[in-house]
Amino acid sequence: MTAPVTSTTGSAATGNTAAVTAAPARGWRLERRHLVSAAVVVVAALIPLVARSFVLFELTMVMIYGLAILGLNLLTGFNGQFSLGHSAFYGLGAYTAALMMHLWDVNYLWTLPAAGGVCFAVGFLFGLPALRLQNLYLALATFALATAMPQILKFHALEGITGGVQGLTVDQPDPPSFLPVDSDQWLYYLTLIVIVLMFWAASNLVRSRSGRAIMAIRDNPIAAAAMGINPSLYKTLTFGVSALYTGVAGALGAFAIQFVAPDSFTIFLSVSLLVGLVIGGVGSIPGCLFGGLFVLFVPNIANSVSTGLAGAVYGIILLLVIFLMPAGAAGFARLAVARLTRARRQ
Amino acid sequence: MDLLLTQVFAGLATGGIYACMALAVVMIYQAIDHLNFAQGEMAMFSTFIAWQLIQWGIPYWFAFLLAAAVSFVGGIVIERVLFKPLHNASILANLVGFIALFSILNSGAGYIWNYTIKTFPTPFGHTNLFGGLIDTHEAGMIGVTAALLFFLYAFFRFTRLGLAMRAAAANPESARLVGIRVGWMTALGWAMAAAVGAVAGMMIAPVVFLEPNMMLGVLLYGFAGAVLGGLTSPLGAVVGGFLVGIIENLAGTFVPYFGRELKLSLALILIVAVLMFKPSGIFGRSVVSRV
Amino acid sequence: MMLEVEGLDAWYGENRALYEISFGLDAGHIRTLLGANGAGKTTALRALCGMVRTGGDIRLDGKRISGWATEDIVRLGVAHVPEGRGTFVRLTVEENLQLGAMTRHGRAEIAADIERVYAQFPRLKERRQQQAGTLSGGEQQMLAVGRALMLRPRLLLLDEPSFGLAPLIVEELFAILRRVSEETRVAMLIVEQNAALALDLAEHAYVLETGRIVLDGPAAEIGADEGVRRSYLGY
User: Fold this and answer.
1) CA–CA dist C111, B48 (Å, integer)
2) Distance between CA atoms of residues B281 and B226, nearest Å
3) How many other β-carbons are positioned within 10 Å of the β-carbon of residue B87?
4) DSSP chain B
5) Tens digits of per-residue pLDDT, B88-146?
């Protein structure tokens, strides 16, 4: 699954410093981007034929985190709004799916759009006060949201519904009977299908007129308003869409972990997603998957370096990354390709 | 009425802690325009240092001063090594820097001193005052906060160094043009914030017990205090901290859920409400954004 | 010469703003840099103070200061009244003046110098405890000059001191500058849009165009040449 990273090079994803005007590249570049993406999807679809189920589970989680990071990236990377509160949306999506299945026995497939819808609505509403908050103030408000969320989920008056501290178990989705796959493979394919659709939608969104408006607001809100863009509307909508992406990821995560509990959705999840975003590359769509890899594997790596000091090792890895690859993996890849092509031309 | 009075006093006592944290947050915000999300962990680590010194048999007040001094130096080191290189980096890179610092301090403290909770001594004892309205440790906390605030006020108001720090924070380019070494003023701001945080940690540890995760809630309330008072005003931060302490205690008494289970939600509500309706806080000046 | 500039280049990022300009200045003298908007006058002053990336050679009393940090150059006695005046708007007038003497020692002497500035600019004295941001444009310009003098500078760089001021106030300010130059022997380099004014005060002028010095000579000669006036100075 390191393959998607290479697709960075072919994509015309706008970097965080690139101008809004970067028009979608037409012609051969566009084709190459599509070819690379298609190749990645084909390879990804073949993996379950060879991989063990634990590896499949890990790859599923990478995709899920990648999707959650994409949600955050739409907000932060493309619209310039900060959030330390995406663990709350992830948790909300997970709880929406778990509750629907638990209370009403709803088919798991329906819980995905429902989780997205609920998170969109909540994200949109949170986006309204966020309109008045800039940069650090917004980071602060969302930080408070993320810190408060587990307490809200544990709240004893709602214990009968949410399961309180214990949380709820979630059944793993059964594969359709006509497909010759087991449930781990099915979850992998389901996640793959969802993320292909949602990554495709996101890359179309950022190349569309609305996408340019979203980026224009990031780069210069006053000029954007002068061009007839309604910043409030776009900012709150982006907040909603961002929460939707992360909420769907949360619902998929609930399927994969088969369990939801308040303490899975703390500020540390938000921080991991943010770190994944910065590591993958702010404003890069394929970079999100690399961020997902980082979120899943680097804590394990840190743990294997030193169990007692895992957090410290993690912190040091973070510092190394921001000092050595300030534009994230996507920026690093872009730079590397630029160097290579220049070398070839000479 | 009695209950109200008791709660106000209890609020002042916890408010003293929040005031110290808020003060530390504001000092770094003034110096580098960033919120230090690792402020709580820095305070926690300093408190562990004090605890260790006391374990080694060093008298309380000596350990107190030594821990504050070590934190002061530590603040300079953190600024020079970590945040000076990030000076021109994006807000996100700075956020990741704070997260890394948070992680390193939290995990480091757990590794060195483990995660079991420890009691931390208070020099003031726990004798009831004013018929049980407040105990001596709480009164001591308020006194220490007041003394700290007075010291900082005098420093910034009446010394040349304090004036230079204010100038460097307000207008770095002009400050350079009068010969102020702005980079060192920033480092000094970190140092003082770290020392103030250390004092806050040592004052709160007897109340919440010492362990690596003791400060998250305190930091959130410290942020709430800083925002309420105005992020640009040290005096505001202190007043905001005390107010937040009182609000927390009153809300906890009259709306029982806020006392325990939804304590942090109250901080969330406070922060969002202040940012919505009075983003510059009570004492802060409003920030005008330019094109 | 006290200040010697040889082949000075300056860049903003990748954009070059100055092309190998050379000039000099001696103690007790006033010289001026003239030219249209964007000619590089402000950049030249900023380059002298290490506020932009430079190439070439800047010497102060023979000591090479190119590439030095701004605060270290200031500590050699170079005071700069920047574009926009650089007022510390939240601090009081008196605090602004104290900041000007930040690199000096001796409480009593500094206090005496503050009184001297007040004597030159009585209006500042009236407003000594007021926040500097509440002053009028003219008062802020006087405060900026006063702050620069508090350094007891050997070299004073002034960026458009007349900008935005009423003619009477400009006259007063320039009279004070002339007096200060005579009394303290400070060398002054003045950047001005208002060429007539600057030529009247300075004894030597340099005319900049798109980052190059295209003319230099005694102020009286440059002011008298009608062709030069029309093509470069716009009056």
Assistant:
1) 46
2) 8
3) 11
4) -HHHHHHHHHHHHHHHHHHHHHHHHHHHHHHHSS--TTHHHHHHHHHHHHHHHHHTT--HHHHHHHHHHHHHHHHHHHIIIIISTTTTS-HHHHHHHHHHHHHHHHHHHHHHH-SS-B----TT---EEGGGTEEHHHHHHHHHHHHHHHHHHHHHHH-HHHHHHHHHHH-HHHHHHTT--HHHHHHHHHHHHHHHHHHHHHHHHHHH-B-TTTTHHHHHHHHHHHHHH-TT-HHHHHHHHHHHHHHHHHHHHHSHHHHTTTHHHHHHHHHHHHHHH-TTTTTPPPPPP--
5) 777 788 888 888 898 899 888 988 888 888 888 888 877 777 776 778 888 888 888 88
Q: What is the rounded CA–CA span in Å between residue B254 and residue B138?
A: 22
The answer to whether residues C144 and C86 touch, using CB atoms and an 8 Å cutoff, is yes
Per-residue exposure over B48-68, b if at least 16 CB sit within 10 Å of its own CB, e if not: bbbbebbeeeeeeeebbeebb
Q: How many CB atoms lie within 10 A of CB A38?
A: 11
Count the neighbouring beta carbons within 10 Å of the beta carbon of residue C86.
Answer: 23
Q: From C151, C217, C216, select the one nearest C180 (Cα to Cα).
A: C151
Given a contact cutoff of 8 angstroms between Cβ atoms, the answer to whether A244 and A120 are in contact is: yes
Helix (H) or strand (E) run with residue A45 in it:
helix A28-50
Under 8 Å between Cβ of A86 and A109: no
DSSP secondary structure letters along A292-327: HHHHHHHHHHHHHH-STTHHHHHHHHHHHHHHH-TT
- Comparing B235 with C101, the larger pLDDT belongs to C101
Q: With bands split at pLDDT 50, 70 and 90, how would you rate the model's confidence at A218?
A: confident
d(CA B215, CA C228): 70
The chain B residue lying nearest C70, using CA atoms, is B176
At C43-52, the pLDDT tens digits run 989 999 888 8
Strand partners, C213: C208
Question: Are A315 and B100 an interchain contact pair (Cβ–Cβ within 8 Å)?
Answer: yes
Q: Which residues contact C108 (CB under 8 A, 6 or more apart)?
A: none
Contact criterion met (CB below 8 Å) for A33 and A12: yes
- Tell me the average pLDDT across A82-92: 88
What three-state secondary structure class fits A232?
helix
Instruction: Tell me which DSSP letter residue A172 carries.
Output: P
For chain C, the chains sharing at least 3 beta-carbon pairs closer than 8 angstroms are: B
* CA–CA distance, A124 with A216 (Å, rounded to integer): 20
Residue of chain C nearest B157, judged by CA positions: C95
The ipTM value here is: 0.89
Give the count of beta carbons closer than 10 Å to the beta carbon of residue A225.
14
Cα C89 to Cα C83: distance, rounded to the nearest angstrom: 15
**Rounded to an integer, what distance in angstroms lies between the CA atom of residue C147 and that of residue B117?**
56
Of C51, C74, C86, the CB nearest to B179: C74
Question: Would you give the DSSP letter of residue A157?
Answer: G
Distance CA C156, CA C45 (A): 10
What local confidence, expressed as pLDDT, does residue B1 receive?
A: 57
Q: Are strands C212-218 and C204-209 parallel, antiparallel or unpaired?
A: antiparallel
User: Would an 8 Å CB–CB cutoff place C92 in contact with chain B?
Assistant: no
Q: How far is the alpha carbon of C121 from chain B, nearest alpha carbon, in Å?
A: 20
The reported pTM is 0.80
